[in-house]
Structure formats: structure tokens, C-alpha cells
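Table S2 (continued). Query chain:
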Amino acid sequence: MTARDRYDVSLHLLDRQIVGADDRLVAKVDDVELTRLSDGRLVPTALLVGLPALLPRLSGVLARMHRLTRAAAADRDLPLVADLGLVDEVGSGVRLNVAHARLPRMERARAEDPQRIRVGDVLGIPVRCAELPCRSKVLDLCVVGVPGRAGRDAPHEVVALIVGPGRPGALLGYDRRSEPGPAVVAGIVRWLHRHARVVDLGPGVVLDVDAGEVRIDPGTSLLPLRG
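Corresponding output:
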């Protein structure tokens, strides 16, 4: 597995354009669905599209307006769905393996499945850890694997969280893939990321979406954010 078989969801998927196999623009990625398997692993299962996916990710007035209007538009409050099996490649955008793609609207039973959450439900929630700055939050989610290959020749699952002070979307991606670039620039990026840490999901780490927090036990490994 290479460095490019590991990616960060917010940095490398959110807000990317989705194009079909015929190179026509389909939509953009407004959120990503995650599913918790019976063995506890958290796997990306779909790209979510449309205002019902985007607005809950936003803080402030827009998110509150979305919550207030959901009941009045119950038939339109669910996002469109592009299952990851349709994804052929992820680069500067997301390319599907079908042409003339018309994305279906999410079924309500799927939306209400307690084992399914959204990346937007995780980004920005507080992190409780005595060894981190008190205002630390979840800044991104690290995934091993390549979208579209899950279940074929490689795993595809969330393996770690990027945590620290600041806000989701503010981290730079310069040193988070395999391109080293000029040492001076890489050094500046490392300095900007100096408080961010990567914590592997596993013993000592509880991602409690219902409570809206992550709890990290003392002594759990917290690695600096590097490429």
C-alpha cells in the first residue's frame, strides 16, 4: 500500500466535483456517508450530494435554517447518493464508472439507520483528552484504501482521526501526501500544524457521535501530523 492509498476525507473528498464516465459534471461531494460494521470498523459507503447534505455541515444560521425547514419539506430533506461502488477514480475530482449518472435520493430507512453516520457529524466535535489543548476538535478523518475498491483487492476504512485546535477545513494538505516539496515550505506547514495530532482508532479512543464528542484515554499514542 502506498501513501496514495491513504487519504483524509475532508481534504481529499469534500467539495470535490463529481464527473461521470462521459466527463459530464454530475454534482459535487457535499458529505460522505460512513457505516459502522458489526466488528466495529467504520467504512465510507457513499458520497452525499445536495443541500440536505451540505447545510448540516455548516455552522450558524444556515444549519439552524435547515433544521427548521426539514419538517416542512420532508420529501426533499434527504440527499442524493452516489454509492462508492460507482467511483472509478479520485484525483482533483471524483470520476464515476458510469455515464449519464442520475443519482437516486437516499431512502428514509437508510437515513435513519443508526449504524450510518456522516463525516459532517464527526468533523468539529470536541475531543476530550488531558494531553491535548482544551479546545481540540476532530479536524479530519484518515482512511486507508481507495474509493471504489472496497471488497475487491484492498480494505477501505477509517483508521485514525486528526485532532487539535482550530476548525475543520483549515489544515493544509501540503505535507499529507507523498510529494515532499521545498523544505522551507514543508517546514512552515509543519509549524502551522504543530498542535495537530493523529490518533488511531482502537483501544483508548471512543468516537461517540450521539454524545457529540471523542474521548481519548491518557497514554494513548498521539502522533504529530506529517505526510
